[in-house]
Amino acid sequence: MYDAFISYSQQRDEPLADGLQEGLEKLLRKGWRRRRTLKVFRDCTSLAASSDLPGSIRAALDNSRYLVLVGSPEAAASPWVRQELALWRAGRSMDHLLLAYTAGEIVWDRTRRDFDWARTTAIPRELSGAFTAEPLWVDLRPFRDSADLSYAPGHPFRDKVVTLAAPIHNVPKDVLDSRGRQEDRNAGRRLRAAVAAFVVLLLGLGTTWTVAWRKSGEASARARTAASRSLAARALEVAPSDPRKAAQFALYAYAVEPTGQAAQALGRAIAANDSTAQHLQRGNESVARFQGAGHSPATKVAMSRDGAVLAYYSGLDPDVMSDSKYAVHLYDIRSRTRLPDLVGKAWPQDGGGFAFSWDGRMLAVETPFNEIELWDVSQRKLLRRITAGNGQQLAGGYMNLRSFAFSGDGTRVAAAFFTPTGESSAVYRLAVWDTATGRQILEEGAVEDGVKLAFDGAHRLVALDSSVGTVRFLMPGSGTWSAPRTLGGYPRLDRDARFGVTLSPDGARVSVTTSGGMHTDVWDVGSGRRLTPTEAATAEERPGFTADGQSVVVQDAANRRRVLGSFTYPVVSLAGSGDGTRVVAASNDGAVSLFSATSFQAGTTLANEQRITSNELTPDRRLAVRPTAEGSELWSVDGDGVKPIGRIGWIGQRGADGRGRLISSSDRARVVTVDEDGSLSLWNPRDGRRTGAPWRPQRRTEPVAFLADHVRFLGITDHTLQVIDPRTWQVVQSLPLGTGPDASRATSVDGTTVALVDRDELKVWRWMEGKGLQQVYQGEIPGGSDFRMSVALSRHGEKAVVINGDHRLVVFDLTSGHVVQGAAVAPEGQSGVAFSTDNTLLVHAYGTGSDSGLQFWDASTGEARGSWAMTGHGEGSVTTFNGTDGSVLTMGADGSLVRRTVDLAAWRTTLCSLAPEPLPPSEYDRYLKGMEVTPPCRAATARP
C-alpha cells in the first residue's frame, strides 16, 4: 500500500520528482530509527513510446491513497501521465489528487468552473471537468533546474513539500511542519546523548586524525585545482590547431575540479569546434609510418550529394595498423549513427577514386592495380569489380587511376589510366563503363596526364583535355562524344603544367593555376568564356569548401572566408554536400571530422517579423511596445522570438529613456500602464480593453514588475517600494527607500525577486507567500554610483550584477553575501548584462559589426573567461539580456534577435558528443597521475 503515487514527465522532471519523493517520505520521521511515515511510489523505468502502462504501475496506482501530479508541458503531452490520470479519474476521488507544476501555466476559469484550456499548458486535458471548484496547486517552477532541493527547515522547497504532504497526513500544514521540526529536534537530542560519551572517548584520537585528514584533504584539493588549471591551459593552447584534443582537455579540466579556468576552457573548446558536427576518427599524431619513399598512409573521404551519408577509409585506422583489416567506414549523418563497415580490399598507396552516387545508395571505390569496386551501400554488398587495364604490371608510379568520375545517377563510371604495352612501356587510356553490367561503353587513347573527368548535373560526362583546353560531352545512354569545344583564351600547357589544372566536381568550371601557384584563371565550361576575377569569386551560389593547410575553409558568395575547423596535420581529402551545408575532411595523420556551415557561436536567429528594435523594449526587456494611431501594439520577447500579444488603446507616456512606461504579467493576461497625467491603468491585452477605472496616485508611481502570482505588481514612488493590487488599486505593502522612481532596478524572470540601486547601495527583496515582500540583502556597491548604473538578476534571483560608476562588473551572491568586483572594465557602447543559464558566467556584448563579440566573466570571481565572435547583427549597438527561459539573447539595432547557448552543462554535452573518448594514458599520467577521475563522457559515440 502506498500513501502517494507521483505522476510526472521522466523526460524533463526526474531530478525534481526524486527530490519531491525524498521530501515527502522524510519530512516526518519518527522514533530512534527515524522511520518513514509515508510510502511514496515513483516509477523510474523508461517505457517505449507505444507501450501501455505495465501491470506493476497499474497496481501501484490502484494501491495508492493520493495521486500527486507534477505538471509541465512535457507531462501534458506524455501518454503515460495521461493514462495514469484517466485510470485515477475512473475509480478514485478527485479530492485525493494533488496538483503541482514545474513549467507552463495553470489558469482557472471561474465562470466555467474549469481550467482555462486556451491558457493552461501544464496539465493534460484528462482533467477537463474534473473539479467543481478551483483546486489548490503548488508552483514548483523555481526548483525545476535547481540542484538545491533541500527540505531542511527554512528552505523554500520545504514549504512546497509541506503543502503537498499536509493533506496526505490529514493534518493542517502548520501542524505538520511543527511536528516535523519537533521530531528532528528529538532525534538530534537522542543522537547527541548517545554520541557524547563516545566523543569524549575518541576526542584525543579524533583530534589527531582530523588534523591529518584536513591536511590531506587540503593537499588533495590543491592538487586537483592545479591539475584542472593545467588541463585548462593545455586546452587553450591546442584549440587553434586541434579542436578535438581541446575538447578532451577542457572536459577533463572541469571533471577533475570545476574551476573558473576550466569553464573558460570549455567556452574556448566550443568556439574551436564551432562548426564541428562530429569527430569521426582521431589523428595518429604521426606520419612516420611510411609505405614508401615520398608516401604516407592514405586517408580519403566521400559524401553523398544529399548530405545524408559519408564514407572514409584510412591507412592509419587502428584496425588497419593492428590487424591489417581494410574497411570503408560509413556514417549516417542525419541520425548521427555509424553504419556497418564495407570490408574489402586495400586501397591504392596514396588513395584513389572514392565517390557516392547522389542518393548515397552506391559507392565507387578505387582499389589497387587500377580496379574499381562498386558497392550497394544499403545492402553492404559488393556488386562488381571493374578492371581498367592490367595495372599490376605497371611501375609503382603508374598503378593508380589518373582521373576518376562516378555519375550522380550511379549508372556510369569513367577513368583515365595507364595500361602496359610491354615490359617497360605503357599507354594512356580513357574508358567509360556501365555500372549495371560492367560493360565497357568506350575506350580510347588520350594525352598523357592531360584528361580531367567529371559528371555534370544532367549526368553528362565532361572530359577536358587540359593540354589545349578542349571540352567534350558524353550524353547519358550514348557511346559517342559531342564535338569538342575550345575554352576561349586557354593556354597551351606542358605535362608538368597540367597538374595545376582542375575541373570542378560538377564539371561546370575549369581552373588553371600558374606562376608558382600565385595566379589562377577560371573558365565557365557552359559558355567557354574566361571569367573575370569578380565573376569567378561569385560563381558559387552555395558555400564553397576548400582546404587551406591544416584548416577547412568555407567561402560564401560575398567572398567572405570562415574557418570551419582545423587539424594538427594538413588536410588531404575533402568532400561536401550538394547544398553546401556539410563537409567531411581528413588530415594527413588520419583524423576525420564532419563540419557544418552553421556556427554554434552564431546561435539561433529568432523570428522578428515586425523588426522590433531594442529601443522598443520595456526596461525589463521582456516586452516590446510600438505606438500606433489607435494605441499601442505589444509583443513578448523571449527565447522563442518576438510574438504578438495584442493591442491596447493606450498611447501613454514614455520614460526619460524613451521607452514605454508599462509592465506585463508573465502570462500576458494583464498590463499596467502609466497615462499622460500619471494615472495607472489595468488592461487586458487579449481584447485591448481597459479593466476598471484608472487610478491616480498622490505621488508619481512607476510600475516595476508583476509578481509571480500574475496579479499584484511592484511600484516605486518617491522613497517607497510598494506592492499594489490593480484589481482594487490597493497598496497592500509599503517599504521605505532612499531613492525614487528613476532608480535602476531589475526583477528576476520568475517574478520573485527585485533589486534596486539605492544611492550607493544594492537592496534586494524577495516575495514570500504569507509574508509578502521581505528584504534579503543590503550592501554597499564598490566603485560608487553613476546615473548610468545598471543592475541585472539571475533567473531565480540567486545572484545580482551591477555595472558600477567605474564601469566595472560587481557581482553579488545574494545567498552567501559574497561580493566581488571584476578586474575587467565593462565596454561602453553596448547595453545589458545577462547570466548564463546555470548562473556560472556573465555575458556582455562588445564592439560593433565585424569586430563585435561576447565577453564572458566568472560570476563567482568577476574574472574574464574568454570571448566568442558575435555574428547575426549589423552595425550599431547590441543589447544583451536573458529570455524568460534563461537563455542569453542579443538584439541588434537593426532588430536582429539571436539566442545563444551559454551553459556549462550544455557545453559539456556538446563536447562529449564530439570527443567522447577517455584521455589517452600518456596524457592522463602527465596531468592526473595518482588521481581518480571519472571519465567526463560516459558513453562513447565516436570511433577511437
What proportion of the residues form beta strands (DSSP E)?
25-35%
- Spans where pLDDT lies below 50 across 5 or more residues: 45-51, 939-944
**How many strand units?**
63
Class derived from helix and strand content: alpha+beta
Strand order of the largest sheet: 4-1-5-6-9
If you had to describe this structure to a student in words, what would you say it looks like?
This protein has 944 residues and is an alpha+beta fold. The chain has 12 helices and 63 strands. Strands 4-1-5-6-9 form a 5-stranded parallel sheet, with helices on both faces. It has a 4-stranded antiparallel sheet with strand order 10-36-35-34, with no helix packed on it. A hairpin with a 4-residue loop joins strand 43 and strand 44. Residues 45-51 and 939-944 have low confidence and may be disordered.
Summarize the structure.
The protein is an alpha+beta fold and 944 residues long. The chain has a five-stranded parallel beta sheet, sandwiched between helices. A hairpin with a 5-residue loop joins strand 49 (745-747) and strand 50.
Keywords:
4-stranded antiparallel sheet; 5-stranded parallel sheet; elongated; alpha+beta
Write the layout of secondary structure elements.
Layout: E1 2-7, H1 10-26, E2 29-30, E3 35-36, E4 40-42, H2 55-62, E5 64-71, H3 73-77, H4 79-91, E6 97-101, E7 108-109, E8 114-115, E9 137-139, H5 156-169, H6 173-238, H7 243-256, H8 260-272, E10 276-281, E11 299-303, E12 309-314, H9 318-323, E13 327-332, E14 337-343, E15 354-356, E16 362-367, E17 371-376, E18 381-387, E19 403-406, E20 412-420, E21 426-434, E22 440-445, E23 451-455, E24 461-465, E25 470-474, E26 485-486, E27 501-503, E28 509-514, E29 519-524, E30 529-530, H10 533-537, E31 544-548, E32 551-555, E33 561-566, E34 571-576, E35 582-587, E36 592-596, E37 604-605, E38 623-627, E39 632-638, E40 641-648, E41 662-664, E42 671-674, E43 680-684, E44 689-690, E45 702-706, E46 713-717, E47 720-725, E48 730-736, E49 745-747, E50 753-758, E51 761-768, E52 772-780, E53 790-793, E54 799-803, E55 808-813, E56 819-825, E57 834-835, E58 841-846, E59 853-858, E60 864-869, E61 878-882, E62 888-892, E63 897-900, H11 904-914, H12 921-928
Parallel strand pairs: 1-4, 1-5, 5-6, 6-9
Antiparallel strand pairs: 2-3, 7-8, 10-36, 11-12, 12-13, 13-14, 15-16, 16-17, 17-18, 19-20, 20-21, 21-22, 23-24, 24-25, 25-26, 27-28, 28-29, 29-30, 31-32, 32-33, 34-35, 35-36, 37-63, 38-39, 39-40, 41-42, 42-43, 43-44, 45-46, 46-47, 47-48, 49-50, 50-51, 51-52, 53-54, 54-55, 55-56, 57-58, 58-59, 59-60, ...
Helix pairs in contact: 5-6, 6-7, 6-8, 7-8, 7-11, 8-11
